[in-house]
Design goal:
The complex is a heterotrimer of chains A (147), B (141) and C (244). Helix content of chain A is 70%, strand content 0%. The longest helix of chain A has 32 residues. Chain A is elongated and about 55 Å long. In chain C, 31% of the residues lie in helices and 18% in strands. Chain C contains eight helices and nine strands. In chain C, helix 3 runs parallel beside helix 5 and helix 5 runs antiparallel to helix 6. Chain C is an alpha+beta fold and 244 residues long. Classes of the chains: A mainly alpha (147), B mainly alpha (141), C alpha+beta (244).
């Protein structure tokens, strides 16, 4: 205990007698982007896409169990559901989520290693552009293959 | 040097005590390890997920693989280990991420330990489930 | 060239079930600051308005608050430059509310002071200064004015009461960069924690909001790089040694 970095006197002030329970914003501080800048938006987008993709991962794993049922089960699922235009749209949403999360992840990893910190905003801009282009190409490919 | 502020005697009670968790002895794992795992698996996923998406979406006639195409795909000796690795890494990365979101709420050290154990268990179950599924498909062609 | 601007000021007194807003119509000229208006409201219209300020020139760091949803120092926030007919004034977030626009800075100071970073820089003097006779040189203080704005802008501080916070982590990195005879390891031990440097999620809101160019997020990142380097050297059996 003696080498604890903090060896300070106890709070000398009289108890303020007020409900000084931490007035934290809670999750609103994550999702409420009013007044926030690009980095804060990137943070919450990363969080939302991450949770969304994790949810999709488990959905995907459950759906794949139909493969074990046999060829007819899988192929009818494919024909009746997944090649439907509605699912095509969901695929585009998934791709967008993966791109946002992946590209922002590269930024977070690079900046988190103490690299390109001073140019992290430029990195955001560059990755936003790359993501938009890949999403466009991907969407076109979905449409051409699915249709 | 003239009267440097930081050389003045420290007034008593200048600081308030920190919350208890900042005792180093409370640290059970190496700090930053989760962050490193997330970065490493993230980089791996950039490769594995790109391969997975291209192989299952963009190069398939019709957009998605039918049963026979799936079987042909995963019995490929190069693809099978890659897809298995993808399963292991993507579930690790995803669960670690959700754990970080939960930790952002500032749990007690005890609650954090419990969350970690639960998540490791979920990860193990996920990998067993996925590997079993792969084994069924590879053996029942 | 007086112009009337509506001020909506968040009000709260101990014992109130919730906070509410009071509206004041205030004349402004092109140079009026938010703090000018608030002190005038207190002097002329409502002496019960609680606010904290001291220097009026962005040095003391006591008038941090949220104006139109963004953390600023009220003393250097020009009302006209906000460009809105209505100006909303709120206390800082993520700190206990004491009264009206005043929050309890205790939790912030507890973390900040625990790092124990010296105030005067050794590596740098005030550039271009002409000190009076008898004074050898103008000392350069650290940039941080301990206003708490970074903590209010930080999304992680919104949920994690354990988070060491941007200002304290930036101070730890400054101490690492320039120990000035101080012990560095205790500060790094505080910073190298799951709820220290590793809790940050790189939103950079603290650096954007900081009125004093501290760039806390940048310091958290260089702190991480240094911690990774130390761990790497320790792993290879090399002396951790240098703090950089």
């Amino acid at each position: 205990m003696t080498d604890r970095a903090v060896t300070r006197d106890a709070d000398p002030r009289p108890s303020p007698g007020v409900p000084l329970s931490a007035r934290r914003r809670g999750v609103a501080g994550w999702v409420d982007v009013r007044g926030r800048r690009l980095g804060g938006v990137a943070f919450i987008l990363n969080r939302i896409t991450g949770l969304g993709v994790l949810f999709y991962l488990y959905l995907h794993l459950v759906v794949l169990s139909q493969l074990a049922v046999g060829p007819s089960a899988w192929d009818s699922l494919l024909k009746n559901w997944f090649l439907n235009p509605v699912f095509l749209v969901l695929d585009v949403v998934l791709l967008a989520g993966l791109l946002i999360h992946g590209l922002n992840g590269i930024r977070v990893a690079l900046v988190g290693l103490g690299l390109v910190v001073s140019r992290q905003k430029a990195l955001l801009g560059a990755f936003g552009t790359i993501g938009a282009i890949v999403l466009l190409i991907g969407t076109l490919m979905f449409i051409s293959h699915g249709g | 040097m003239t009267g440097r502020v930081d050389e003045l005697p420290e007034p008593t009670g200048r600081s308030l005590p920190l919350p208890e968790r900042w005792a180093p002895e409370q640290q059970e794992t190496i700090p930053g390890v989760s962050w490193a795992w997330q970065a490493i698996t993230g980089v791996l996923l950039l490769v594995l997920l790109t391969l997975h998406m291209i192989a299952n979406h963009f190069v398939v006639q019709g957009g998605l693989r039918d049963y026979q195409q799936v079987i042909d795909y995963i019995t490929n000796p190069v693809i099978l280990p890659l897809e298995t690795l993808f399963l292991v890494v993507v579930s690790w990365h995803g669960l670690l991420g959700l754990r970080a979101v939960i930790f952002d709420f500032g749990l007690s050290a005890r609650a954090e330990r419990i969350v970690t154990r639960v998540f490791v268990a979920i990860w193990v179950v996920t990998v067993i489930y996925g590997v079993t599924l792969l084994a069924i498909l590879v053996t029942h062609r | 060239m007086s112009e009337t601007v509506t001020f909506r000021v968040q009000r709260f007194k101990q014992g109130d079930p919730a906070s509410h807003y009071d509206t004041f119509q205030e004349s402004t000229d092109p140079r009026t600051t938010v703090l000018d208006v608030l002190t005038r409201i207190r002097r002329v219209e409502d002496p019960t308005l609680t606010l904290r300020h001291s220097c009026f020139h962005a040095s003391c760091g006591t008038c941090g608050m949220k104006v139109n949803g963004r953390e600023v120092l009220a003393c250097v926030t020009n009302v006209r430059e906000l460009g809105t007919d209505e100006v909303v004034v709120q206390p800082l977030d993520n700190a206990p509310l004491v009264s009206d626009l005043v929050v309890d800075m205790g939790p912030f100071y507890a973390r900040f002071n625990a790092i124990d970073r010296p105030l005067v820089r050794e590596s740098e003097l005030v550039p271009g200064s002409h000190p009076a006779e008898g004074i050898p040189h103008a000392e350069r203080y650290e940039d941080c004015i301990e206003c708490g704005i970074c903590l209010s802008a930080c999304p992680i501080a919104a949920t994690d009461p354990e988070y060491l916070g941007p200002a304290a982590l930036a101070a730890a990195d400054r101490l690492r960069e320039e120990p000035r005879g101080q012990q560095v390891p205790p500060a790094l031990r505080l910073a190298d924690d799951p709820h220290g440097a590793w809790r940050c999620h790189v939103a950079f809101e603290c650096s954007e909001a900081c009125p004093s160019n501290v760039d806390p997020a940048g310091h958290i990142m260089s702190l991480r790089r240094s911690l990774i380097g130390r761990r790497w050297r320790a792993l290879r059996g090399e002396p951790v040694g240098a703090e950089r």
